[in-house]
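Design request, tokens follow.
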């Protein structure tokens, strides 16, 4: 038995015919009733992050993968050693350490605890 459906995608209507193969037919539900609209998300004001200056010269460490910032282990002005853990980044339910790629002084922190980051986003600048 062929069943006809009218589907609207991005304002364009399509007439689709589908053959019912087996099982008991499901009751017809209007498409508009089954589509959920995303609810507006209210977000709290972002927590200001300490930044030494906007035109800081140094080596900026990028996020190695998308995730959420769990902990900041250093603050602006701290001296760090090569391979010292700087940030704990949660990705795929695992905690990952972001470490310093060289020794120096933290000149800027570009993220806050709880913030979501994408791969490549600037995390910390080390002079």
């Amino acid at each position: 038995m062929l069943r006809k459906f009218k589907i609207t995608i991005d304002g364009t209507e399509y007439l689709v015919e589908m053959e019912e193969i087996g099982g008991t037919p499901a009751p017809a539900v209007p498409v508009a009733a089954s589509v959920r609209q995303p609810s507006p998300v209210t977000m709290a004001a972002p927590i200001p992050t300490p930044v030494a200056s906007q035109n800081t010269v140094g080596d900026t460490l990028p996020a190695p993968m998308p995730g959420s910032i769990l902990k900041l282990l250093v603050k602006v002005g701290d001296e760090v050693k090569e391979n010292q853990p700087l940030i704990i980044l949660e990705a795929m339910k695992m905690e990952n350490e972001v470490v310093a790629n060289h020794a120096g002084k933290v000149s800027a922190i570009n993220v806050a605890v709880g913030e979501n980051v994408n791969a490549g986003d600037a995390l910390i600048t080390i002079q």
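Comment from the thread starter after seeing the answer: thanks! Residues 51-56 have pLDDT under 50 and may be disordered.
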